[in-house]
Amino acid sequence: MTVATRTGLDTIPAYRQGKSPAPAEGLAPYKLSSNENPYPPLPAVVEAVAEAAAALNLYPDMSAAALAGAVARHWGVQPENLAFGAGSVEVASQLIHAVASPGDEVMFAWRSFEAYPVLATVSGAVPVPVPLTADGGHDLDAMLAAITDKTRLIFVCNPNNPNGAVLSADAVEAFVAAVPADILVVIDEAYLHFNVDPGTAVGVDLFRRHPHVAVLHTFSKAYGLAGLRLGYAIARPELVANLRKVAVPFAVTALAQAAGLASLAAEGQLQERIDVLVAERERLHAGLLAAGLPVRPSQANFLWLDAGVATAQVAAAFEAAAIAVRAFPGEGLRISIGSPEANDRVLGLARRLAVAVPA
Ligand SMILES: Cc1ncc(COP(=O)(O)O)c(C=O)c1O
């Protein structure tokens, strides 16, 4: 006899974590499968975490007041506009739980962040994926056309994971204006700091103009705190109050709050690292293109290789070179921007890969 489980559980896809590299004789392994920051935390951040560790016997501040104050100042919003979670993926889950009843629809472009369909299904909502355009952008017209009276939330991922495509300010402004005001539009900007496109949509600007917009940010990527789990939404106070209702109490640890605060105070140093990662992205993109590989321009900390039917073969070549990447069978591969040494290893593979990949 086994424990009875919830109806429909077997239809919920499990979230797949990025693979670790397989060991290869004489080669340092590189994990380029989870869009992690290759830099270790700044000394000031480690120090703040160590200091906070001295009070681990106490529960964290559930309102994350100090951090909320600093983030609010950073974006020019009020602390009442901020809801924190254990990573932005947990805040995305809060958003769905707060607005969608069982059977309601949660829309997103596809392919996009793999957690969207998982979170929607877990909450009892119906995921509505809308295929990307042929050139890999969000098909905003098709998304508008897919709205029904059950649509409660629409994710817009900018830059998009896994292909790094960005949406223009004009396009998202027109989209948001056309979405009925009782449907929440969530601009997921996990990769915002790597986006140097001057024409890009800016979530916080859209949030200021439109009450039905919320913005998702994370400390995992540019700030390099993926292991601590810290993310937040910027939203209207009424929605923030509802997010707090559905959040798991105390999910944001005192260590994460301390690290977030210390990171905001060290923005200059973090920006230097971001600049290097952006330059490395451009170097890798140019090198892969020069080798004849169909790699998309990207505004995130990863590149998308349109390997199509050759995806499994290319993934095997990366694996043999002790590099883990994210392979989407039959579609392509996402390669996170790593340290210069890791990126050199990818470039070293490029010419060999070009033979396998259809142009
Ligand atoms: C688009 C997007 N949103 C949100 C997240 C979640 O990040 P975290 O939960 O670490 O903040 C990710 C992580 O890969 C992502 O790619």
Q: Which regions are unreliable across 5 or more consecutive residues at pLDDT < 50?
A: none
Cα distance spanning the termini: 54 Å
Spatial ordering of strands, largest sheet? 2-8-7-6-5-3-4
Percentage of residues in helical conformation: 25-40%
Q: In what range is the share of β-strand residues?
A: 15-25%
- Highest-level CATH class of the largest domain: Alpha Beta
Average the pLDDT over all residues and give the rounded result.
96
State the shape.
globular
Question: Main sheet, how many strands, which sense, barrel?
Answer: 7 strands, mixed
Which features characterize this protein?
alpha/beta; Aspartate Aminotransferase, domain 1; Aspartate Aminotransferase, domain 2; seven-stranded mixed sheet; 11 strands; 16% strand; globular; binds pyridoxal-5'-phosphate
What's this entry about, in short?
By secondary structure, the protein is α/β, with parallel strands linked by helices.
Helix/strand layout:
Elements: E1 30-32, H1 43-53, H2 65-75, E2 82-85, H3 88-99, E3 105-110, H4 115-123, E4 126-131, H5 140-145, E5 151-157, H6 169-178, E6 184-188, H7 203-209, E7 213-218, E8 231-234, H8 237-246, H9 254-265, H10 267-290, E9 302-305, H11 311-320, E10 323-328, E11 332-336, H12 340-356
Helix pairs in contact: 1-9, 2-9, 3-4, 3-8, 10-12, 11-12
The chain binds pyridoxal-5'-phosphate.
Pyridoxal-5'-phosphate is lined by residues 35, 87-89, 113, 157, 161, 188, 190, 218, 220, 226, 231.
